[in-house]
Design goal:
The complex is a heterodimer.
Chain A lengths: L3 E7 L7 E7 L5 E8 L5 H4 L8 H4 L8 H16 L5 H33 L10 H7 L1 H22 L8 E2 L2 E2 L5 H8 L2 H21 L1 H6 L6 E6 L11 E5 L5 E6 L4 H4 E5 L6 E5 L3 H4 L2 E2 L2 H7 L6 H13 L10 H21 L19 E8 L2 E9 L5 E7 L1 H20 L7 H13 L5 H5 L6 E6 L5 E7 L1
Parallel strand pairs in A: 6-11
Antiparallel strand pairs in A: 1-2, 1-15, 2-3, 4-5, 6-7, 7-8, 9-10, 12-13, 13-14, 15-16
Helix pairs in contact in A: 3-4, 4-6, 4-8, 4-14, 5-6, 6-8, 8-14, 13-14, 15-16
Chain B lengths: L3 E5 L2 E5 L5 H7 L23 E4 L6 E2 L10 E3 L3 H17 L14 H8 L16 E2 L5 E4 L8 H10 L4 E4 L6 E4 L16 H5 L5 E3 L12 H13 L1
Parallel strand pairs in B: 1-5
Antiparallel strand pairs in B: 1-2, 3-4, 3-5, 6-7, 7-10, 8-9
Classes of the chains: A alpha+beta, B alpha+beta.
The structure holds iron/sulfur cluster (2 copies) and FE2/S2 (inorganic) cluster.
One iron/sulfur cluster binds next to helix 3 of chain B.
């Protein structure tokens, strides 16, 4: 069969770039789609031989958007190695920082990367379909988006002195306390942050109403879901147990300790991507696709922890009549519901009288040769797994990251969208953008490259089976 | 006290002839960059950062090991000196594996500060990227040879101040390494008293306590100097 290939490759990114290949059959119909992740930064390998206590400093360098999640997963693995728990106040401060990171990441995803699609339209001029276009037409929204990110970063900065690659989260707790002055300054942000998130929710709900058919049919094939929940099944980002549900919402596993993750998750390497393909072990590679991230977290959760987010959550649940919502488009909505819960939770924590206590660290030393830590990164459940020798030197490191877990589903979503919107070498801008936005729904770690300042720069090549170019399209 | 006249950077001074150029400069607030020097222990002139120009002598001499002499005319901050300081700093970084962003000493490191001081915006020499051991065998401390600059402050402190002489130096050239006892893991040393003085003496992130993470490192090299002052007073 004469298969033709359609490549979509973003070209301006140095690190974390991805290519999409769409394979066409003889009739110009899409036969397959692959999302290649070419980044491989060798962290697991080069951490071997280092002290385990260095991992909370080394691993946040994996990502500039979710460094706090890496630090927290790492520090929890260290605490398991030492056999100690952080202090109450340290947990509050860590939660605040984690909320800050989740908020700025979700704000980036929604206001900077995705809102141009919702507010300006998918088929609008690509040169203006970006945050600058938003700033021109909707200056208040652009500014609010930027300020929400700033609040998120301040939550870290006012505790540790750094916005991004934070220092001072140590096994057993924190190196720095929160001052009263900083507590007050952070509390001042709450009303504005709440308003901004509500505004985002209004935008996305309006878009849902006006585009119901598209939203519902967009990349909506059912999968399993994995997320962290509290002891009552409530939504949880920092510390909880794992819950797996199936495509109908039946709970497959509940209150699983993250330390048992290997009993339920297996990984397989594939030849077209450097990412490993994780799957839910009891169902095997073919049936064990699962998704993580905001959509997954809300699908698995029984309830939200805060009142306003709970109200929005109930609306979300009504979309699937109580069953899991599969459409990848709903990632955007669930991100905003989480952001709402983040702001409410931040307010609760900042009003906890113990948040400024100086009792911020318990002290321990190496006791066990294995540690596993997990947390919910903005993009999904994250696992750090370390093995050490009896001096604390790392002999094995396994990092299971969110984007990796979503990768099989991202492929599938691209394929579905490609089938709906791409036909032969008739390549229209709006169509490609939808393929691209299928990826963007998942907000994979590489997304920051692709839409921050404009439409994704792409070179599209249609090739025949022998690799010869039939058609070439460029968009910068 | 007998004094002798000398001139440093056009400034005329009357100084104690028993002192080194470095000591005189420090007393008179004249800046000299140092790395292997640590007040209180014997100077060895190893790092070559403290080089100064002396009128009538073609070579640059190390301020930490050169005694003042009558009518000496010294310059501490010429273009030639700055050029050598920059070269020296670059070679420190090129010789081992320094990744400040993930180093426990980030923000508290004398080598890193040196890099800023000489405005080292890039390194002109090829990195050696040697394979270096991280010795984690000691129950409390780590010795990471990746970040060692061979200043031997640890060796001298251990020998001269603690009197244990756990640390020493083996090999030559770029294969030179700090060793514990006769090249055994630090944790198995029979001479180390675990006093921690080498940790405070070490200017970089090469020796650090296991219990801390980046942002928590406290190195106090001045405790070595103070300790030696107090000992002198007792005598
Ligand atoms: S020892 Fe100093 S210069 Fe070397 S990596 Fe650490 S902070 Fe950087
Ligand atoms: S371990 Fe530290 S004090 Fe010892 S030689 Fe190396 S850099 Fe200098
Ligand atoms: S300080 Fe003088 S040579 Fe090192």
């Amino acid at each position: 069969m004469d298969k033709r290939k359609l490549f979509i490759s973003p070209v301006t990114r140095i690190e974390g770039h991805a290519n999409i290949t769409i394979e066409l059959d003889d009739n110009g119909n899409v036969s397959d789609a692959l999302f290649h992740v070419n980044e491989f930064r060798g962290f697991e390998k080069f951490c071997e031989g280092r002290m385990y206590t260095e991992m909370p400093t080394i691993t946040p360098r994996i990502c500039g958007i979710c460094p706090t999640s890496h630090t927290l997963a790492s520090v929890k693995a260290c605490e398991m190695i030492q056999g100690i728990q952080p202090t109450y106040t340290a947990n509050l401060l860590r939660r605040l920082m984690h909320i800050g990171q989740n908020l700025s990441s979700h704000a980036l995803s929604f206001f900077h990367l995705s809102s141009p699609d919702f507010l300006l339209g998918y088929d609008s001029d690509p040169a203006k379909r970006n945050i600058l276009g938003i700033a021109e037409k909707f200056p208040d929204i652009a500014l609010r988006g930027i300020r929400l990110r700033k609040f998120g970063q301040e939550l870290s900065e006012r505790i540790t002195g750094k916005k991004i690659h934070i220092m001072g989260i140590a096994p057993g707790g924190m190196a720095y306390p929160l001052t009263e002055e900083n507590r007050k300054a952070l509390l001042n942000w709450i009303p504005e942050a709440l308003q901004t998130v509500q505004l985002g929710i209004n935008i996305i709900r309006k878009f849902h109403e006006e585009n119901t058919a598209m939203v519902q049919s967009f990349a909506n094939s059912p999968t399993l879901y994995l997320g962290t929940v509290g002891s009552g099944g409530e939504h949880e980002l920092y510390d909880g147990k794992l819950r797996f549900i199936d495509a109908d919402g039946i709970i497959l596993q509940d209150q699983v300790s993250p330390q048992q993750y290997l009993d339920f998750i297996a990984e397989r390497s594939v030849n077209w991507s450097y990412l490993k393909y994780p799957y839910y072990k009891p169902l095997g590679f073919d049936k064990g696709f699962y998704r993580v991230g905001p959509l997954a977290r809300l699908n698995v959760a029984t309830r939200m922890k805060t009142p306003l987010a709970q109200k929005e959550f109930e609306h979300f649940k009504s979309i699937g009549s109580g069953k899991p919502v599969h459409g990848a488009f709903y990632y955007h909505y669930t991100r905003l519901i989480e952001a709402l819960s983040d702001v409410e939770d931040a307010e609760r924590i900042l009003n906890d009288p113990d948040v400024t206590s100086l009792h911020i660290q318990h002290h321990g030393r190496w006791n066990y040769d294995e540690g596993i830590g997990s947390t919910e990164a903005p993009r999904g459940t994250l696992f750090h797994h370390y093995k050490t020798d009896e001096t604390g030197k790392l002999v094995k490191v396994n990092l299971l990251i969110a984007t990796g877990q979503n990768n099989p589903s991202m492929n599938r979503s691209v394929l579905e969208v490609a089938r709906q919107y791409v036909k032969g070498d008739d390549i229209k801008e709006g169509m490609l953008n939808r393929v691209e936005s299928a990826i963007r729904c998942y907000d994979p770690c590489l997304s920051c490259s692709t839409h921050a300042m404009g439409s994704m720069p792409m070179v599209i090549e249609v090739k025949d089976k022998k690799g010869e170019l039939i058609k070439r399209l460029e968009r910068f | 006290m007998n004094t002798i006249p000398i001139t440093i950077n056009d400034k005329k001074l009357d100084v104690d002839p028993a002192k080194t150029i470095l000591e005189v400069c420090r007393e008179n607030d004249i800046e000299i960059l140092t790395m292997c020097h640590l007040k209180g222990i014997i100077d060895i002139g190893a790092c070559r950062l403290c080089l100064v120009e002396i009128e009538g002598i073609n070579k640059l001499l190390s301020a930490c090991t050169t005694k003042v002499a009558a009518n000496m005319v010294v310059k501490t901050s010429t273009e030639r000196i700055k050029k050598y300081q920059r070269i020296t700093a670059e070679l420190f970084f090129a010789e081992r594996n320094h990744v400040c962003s993930v180093c426990v000493a980030n923000g508290k490191c004398e080598l890193q500060q040196l890099g800023y001081k000489v405005e080292m915006d890039h390194i002109r020499y090829p990195h050696l990227f040697p394979h270096c051991e991280v010795d984690t065998s000691h129950p409390w401390y780590v010795m990471d040879h990746n970040r060692c600059i061979m200043c031997t402050r640890c060796v001298r402190v251990c020998n001269e101040v603690e009197g244990a002489h756990n640390w020493d130096v083996m090999n030559r050239g770029h294969q030179v390494r700090i060793i514990s006892d006769f090249n055994t893991p630090w944790g198995e040393s029979i001479t180390c008293t675990s006093c921690g003085k080498c940790l405070h003496a070490c200017p970089t992130g090469a020796i650090w306590p296991k219990a801390i993470v980046q942002g928590q490192l406290e190195k106090k090299p001045e405790i070595i100097s103070e300790l030696m002052e107090k000992r002198k007073m007792k005598l």
